[in-house]
Each structure stands twice: as C-alpha cells, then as structure tokens.
C-alpha cells in the first residue's frame, strides 16, 4: 500500500529487558517498513511509564507488551487501560506460554512467544493494522466520552487550548488529542496542513487563494505562505484521485 494512502499507526513497545525491548522495536520497524506501512514507534522500559504517558495524553493504536515485568506487569497494565476505556490493540509477548489464556481477559489481539520470530510478529502486526488502523471511523475522547466519527465528516481541525477543535459537518467538537496526533490518524491523501495550527480536509476546499482557503460552506481559513506550495501539490494529487 503506498504510504501517502496509508494511515499512520501509533505503536508503543514496552519491555523492562533492554535487549528484548530493542529486538521487539527493531523487528517492528523492519516489518512495517518492508510492508510500506507508516508508523510512529515509542519505547517504554516499564508498564508504569507507559501507563503514565497514556494518562498524560499519549495515544496509541497498538501496544506490544511484555507480560512478565517487575512491578506492574503487562497483564495488569492492559487491565488498567481497559478500565480507562482504552481500546488499543494489544500484542502480548512472553517466555511464559501458560499466561497466554489470560490474554483473552483483556481482549488481546495476539500472544507471541519469546524470543520473537519475524513471521509470527509480521502476521500479528498486519492483522492489527488491517483490523484497527484501517477502520473508517475514529474513536476520540471528547467531553461526551469516547466519540466515534468518520474522517469524511471532518471539514478541518485546529489547535485549541489543550487539544484540538474539529469543525464537523454537524458542528464543532473539542478533544484533548493534539493536532499532530489527529494528523497521524487521518488519511494523508485527504488531509493536509494549510497552516501549522490548521489541518484541512481537501474534500471541502472550494477555492485556494494565496493567503486563504474558501471552504464549501463559504467560510475561509488562513493559509501559511510557507505551506502554499505543498498545499497546491496535495490538492492537485487529491483531485487527480
């Protein structure tokens, strides 16, 4: 799949053994690159560190968790995240095969044995990508809770106080998700930055002018002079299909 048509998968890898953490992260990068699937990968050396990051606003669509870790283990982390309403896909890995059945308690997508083998990890990653990243709907935290929305309903999104404000066809909503996080979840072919604080859906662009975009509803949003060239190319590529 061409990268410009692919949503970017946000991945976190967590293992308290440095060698195993490097191996898991390295294999994941290799597989995603070989499949031309864009991703952002973050590494954590403890379950508590990952939990804190998520509680502070970090968002991931896929978690690769070692089961047996000192302190909070991978199963306890997964249970805590599910209790918070986190719906991330989870791939467990462990040298303890007897723990595999417990993975179903937290709706894990896969349970892999250590040491990780590329074919098994590849199958798990591709399964999670297809199942969780290619969904047509987004799940975003809002003041109403976890809200589902379709990317095609987003006219534009802008930085807003501690998060982002999305202008939908049905009206505005706010989310604590940062604009950069939204951009990573949305299809690159349809969404591009017209300004460092504004992400626009090209489907709603009626006219592009040197300093502004006129949207389908007649409203205008600003265009940065530093982004006009890239914006023109993105719009032309979008119109060509």
In brief:
It contains 6 helices and 15 strands. It is α/β, with parallel strands linked by helices and 241 residues long.
Question: Could you describe the 3D structure shown?
Answer:
The chain is an alpha/beta fold and 241 residues long. The protein folds into two domains: 3-133, Rossmann fold; 138-240, OB fold (Dihydrolipoamide Acetyltransferase, E2P) (Beta Barrel). It is 30% helix and 31% strand. It has helices at residues 18-34, 47-55, 74-83, 118-133, 179-185, 228-240, and strands spanning 9-14, 39-44, 62-66, 89-94, 110-113, 138-142, 145-149, 154-160, 163-168, 171-175, 191-195, 198-201, 205-208, 212-215, 220-222. It has a five-stranded parallel sheet, sandwiched between helices. The protein has a five-stranded antiparallel sheet with strand order 10-9-8-12-11. A three-stranded antiparallel sheet has the order 13-14-15, with no helix packed on it. Helix 1 (18-34) crosses helix 4. The model is unreliable at 1-6 (pLDDT under 50).
CATH level 3 topology of the largest domain: Rossmann fold
Radius of gyration: 20 Å
Biggest sheet overview? 5 strands, parallel
Write down the secondary-structure element order: EHEHEHEEHEEEEEHEEEEEH
Low-pLDDT segments, ≥5 res = 1-6
């Amino acid at each position: 799949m061409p990268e410009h048509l692919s949503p970017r998968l946000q991945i976190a890898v967590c293992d308290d053994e440095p060698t195993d953490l490097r191996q898991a992260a390295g294999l994941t990068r290799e597989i995603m690159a070989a499949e031309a699937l864009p991703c952002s990968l973050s590494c954590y050396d403890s379950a508590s560190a990952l939990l804190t990051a998520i509680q502070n606003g970090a968002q991931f669509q896929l978690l690769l968790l070692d089961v047996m870790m000192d302190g909070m283990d991978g199963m306890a982390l997964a249970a805590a995240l599910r209790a918070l309403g986190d719906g991330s896909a989870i791939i467990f890995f462990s040298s303890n095969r007897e723990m595999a059945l417990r993975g179903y308690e937290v709706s894990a997508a896969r349970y892999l044995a250590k040491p990780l083998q590329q074919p098994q990890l590849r199958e798990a990653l591709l399964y999670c990508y297809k199942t969780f990243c290619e969904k047509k709907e987004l799940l975003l935290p809002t003041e109403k809770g976890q809200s589902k929305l379709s990317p095609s309903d987003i006219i534009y999104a802008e930085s807003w106080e501690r998060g982002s404000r999305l202008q939908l066809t049905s009206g505005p909503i706010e989310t604590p998700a940062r604009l950069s996080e939204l951009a990573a979840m949305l299809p690159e072919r349809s969404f591009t930055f017209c300004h460092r604080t504004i992400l626009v859906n090209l489907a709603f662009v009626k006219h592009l002018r040197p300093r502004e975009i006129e949207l389908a509803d007649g409203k205008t949003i600003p265009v940065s002079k530093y982004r006009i060239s890239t914006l023109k190319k993105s719009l032309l590529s979008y119109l060509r299909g």
